[in-house]
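re the bet — no i am not wrong, look at it urself. input seq straight from the record:
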Amino acid sequence: MSSPALEAFLARLYAEEAALARFLDDPDAVLAASGLDPAERAALGVIDRAGLVMAAHSFAAKRSGRAKPRPAGRVRRALATLFR
C-alpha cells in the first residue's frame, strides 16, 4: 500500500517537526483530516510511533549534516511521552 498521498503524508511527518508533534498528540484527528483512504489511515493509526520519531530525527540529522544526532525540543518530549 503506497500512494503518492501516503508518501507525501509520511514525508511531512518526517520533515516537519510541528506536523509530527500534531500527529503524536492526536493521531485520530490528524488522520481524519488527512484525505487518505481508510486503509492508509488504519495502517498509520497503528504505526510504530517510537520508530516514526526516531526516523524523523534521523532524517533531520542527515539534512543538517550532523554526524551524531541528538533529539531536540519537541522530538525529545515526544520520545519521553512514548516511553513513560
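see?? Residues 49-64 form the longest helix (16 residues). told u. also The radius of gyration is 13 Å. so pay up
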